[in-house]
Structure formats: structure tokens, C-alpha cells
Amino acid sequence: MGDGGFWHNGLTSGVGNAVFNRSDNVLLVVDNGYSAATGGQDVLSSKAVNPIRSTDHPIEKAVRGVGVEWARTVTNTYSLGQMRDALREALTTKERGPKVVVAQSECMLNRQRRVRPQVREQIAEGRRVVRERFGVDPDTCTGDHSCIRLSGCPSLTITANTDPLRDDPVATVIDSCVGCGLCGEVAHAAVLCPSFYRASIVYNPTRFDRFVSRLRLALIGWLQRRIERRLHGLAA
Predict the structure, then answer these.
(1) How confident is the model at residue 207 (pLDDT cuts 50, 70, 90)?
(2) Helices (H), the chain
(3) Does 3.40.50 match the CATH number of domain 129-207?
(4) Domain coordinates of the chain in residue numbers?
(5) For the chain, which has fewer Cβ within 10 Å, the N-terminal or C-terminal residue?
(6) Is 228 within 8 Å of 220 (Cβ atoms)?
(7) What share of residues in the chain are helix, strand, coil (percent, to 5)?
(8) How high is the pLDDT of residue 180?
């Protein structure tokens, strides 16, 4: 159930009826901070400060108010481990009656509409800005594509495999990635593969940033040359 539908009718018809009928079920409420179905308006649980509306009323508090005894709020739904643990607890607890898990995180698309203009302004002013990006190492990716099936992220797609010994396309992360980390979380929690990596893109780097970058490049170059010498010796 979405947070918009929850406040429109779900609290009474869904949660209230479950409490009244003593239903032993699990309800997942997706709380992204606004009513997406009708255009993104604020709802009672929205975190935004609204000068003419009363907001910031927790969904968990509302469901407990109508009689739900077991309720949990996960404030970072992009952490697959936290969501998995909350749902597992809800499904295995011996407590009877309805269980409610509130998945509370802002939609990344909506967040980017708010954050990107701020980031562009900071970069134009010459301020240091760090942007997180995720990627897939094509040499490590096996072409299993379980990461794509499990995450559903629109930035995670496939590309041609440059390895002449393999035909299957490999996974790749395109430039629309916003760095939420869900793809890497899925790959790690599901024990899929070690091909995901996280990169930090630094705008307007400081002298220290440049020094660290040169040091890293020197170390990586030394390791690469060492491997090449070893492979050359084996070939000889």
C-alpha cells in the first residue's frame, strides 16, 4: 500500500478492518513522502514543511493508534539488509494479529528534481561536490543478469561483451545512475557477484583530492606493470 492510498482510505478500510477482524497478515506501506498517484501532493506523513498543511505525522503512530501491536519503520529502504530483516521478522514473529512494515524513503526521481539544481549551483560557485556513482566491471561480470532482474533499476542495463571468448552481454550502469546503491546492495545481499563497484566523482577538487588521485594512479600503474611483467615471463 502506498502512503497516499494509506491516508486516503487504507487506514480505515485496510488497517482498521485487519485489526477489527484480527487478521494475521503483513502489510507493507511504501512511504515516499507524497501522493504519487494524484500528482505528488503532500500527505499527512510528508516530511516537507508545508505552511498551510499539517505534515510530519508518522504512519507507524497512526497504525498503532487503531490497534496494531506489531509495527516497524525502516527509514532507509535502499538498504536491502534492513528491509530483508524487517520483513523476515514480520513473517516469522509469533505475535498474532496484523503486522505493519513502513518502508520510508524518498523516491530517487523526486529527490533528484530537488537536489540537482542545488548541486549545479554549488558547482558553479566553485564549491567541492562529491557525486556517488555505481558501475559494473565488465571483466568480472559473468552475464548472469540476476542483478537486473532483482533490482529493476532503469539505469542498470546490458552492453556488448568485449571478451571474444564469451557471447553473453554483460551488465552496465548508464549515466542516469543517481548513486542510491540499490544495485550493489542486491548484488551483495543475494551473493550474486563481486563485479559492482562504487566511484566518487569529485567536482572542484581540492589540492588534497588531487594528491590522493595521483597517489592512487601511481599505485595502480605499478601494480598493472607488475602483472604485465609476470604475464610476459609466463609467456616466455
Answers:
(1) very high
(2) 3-5, 17-20, 59-65, 80-92, 108-124, 146-151, 182-189, 207-235
(3) no
(4) 3-108, 129-207
(5) C
(6) no
(7) 40, 20, 40
(8) 81
Helices 80-92 and 182-189: crossing angle, nearest 10°? Answer: 60
| Residue found under cell 589540492 | 207
Fold match between 3-108 and 129-207?
no
Pull the grid cell for residue 178. 543517481
Q: Domain 3-108: give its CATH superfamily.
A: Thiamin diphosphate (ThDP)-binding fold, Pyr/PP domains (3.40.50.970)
Between the CA atoms of 72, 75, 77 and 82, what dihedral angle is there, to the nearest 10 degrees? -60
Q: Residue 40 has which C-alpha cell?
A: 505528488
- Report residue 172 as a C-alpha cell: 552496465
User: What is the 8-class DSSP label of residue 7?
Assistant: I
* DSSP states along 135-157: EE-TTT--S--HHHHHH--TTEE
Residues 140, 146, 148: CA angle, nearest 5 degrees = 95
**C-alpha cell recorded at residue 88:** 523476515
Rounded CA-CA distance 190/184 in Å is: 10
- The amino acid occupying position 201 is I
CA nearest neighbour of 168 among 153, 148, 190, 188:
148
Strand ranges of the sheet holding 26-31, from the earlier edge strand across to the other edge = 26-31, 99-104, 70-74
